[in-house]
Design goal:
Elements: H1 5-8, H2 10-14, E1 28-29, E2 33-34, E3 53-54, E4 68-72, E5 90-94, E6 103-105, E7 114-116
Parallel strand pairs: 4-7
Antiparallel strand pairs: 1-2, 3-5, 4-5, 6-7
Length: 127
């Protein structure tokens, strides 16, 4: 004897995630089931308190606002690496807030004068 789906019982008889067939709540998807919570917008990340303004991802700066200094992190890059690629980040600081360990960088990135931490500031391990 072949049993119908409704006769089997268990999860099949219960429908989607334990809700009886045809009795889905108002906010429910027939595939994923009832909506248990509303998705909340992700909060904005905290802004650095040192006056940093990050360069938008995927972009290469063309100019720097007066009174600000362009800087980048230590991630390996070339002259045209956009921000966000492989963890490369760039930002501007008010000229008065640039840390003393950041020095003028001559890597040629973006074609604009900028600063970066010298590689001697980073730990190097030799084999």
């Amino acid at each position: 004897m072949i049993k119908r789906r409704d006769d089997i019982g268990g999860a099949a008889a219960q429908g989607v995630r334990g809700v009886p067939h045809g009795k889905l709540p108002a906010k429910a998807d027939p595939i994923t089931g009832p909506v248990l919570y509303e998705a909340q917008p992700r909060p904005e990340p905290p802004k650095p308190d040192d006056g940093r303004q990050y360069v938008d991802g995927g972009k290469l700066p063309k100019s720097v606002a007066p009174g600000r200094v362009l800087a980048h992190n230590h991630v390996q890059h070339n002259k045209t690496t956009p921000c966000g690629e492989r963890g490369f980040r760039a930002w501007t600081w008010p000229a008065s807030r640039v840390p003393p360990n950041f020095k003028q960088c001559d890597c040629g990135w973006s074609g604009l004068p900028h600063v970066a931490r010298p590689s001697s500031d980073f730990l190097t391990v030799s084999a």
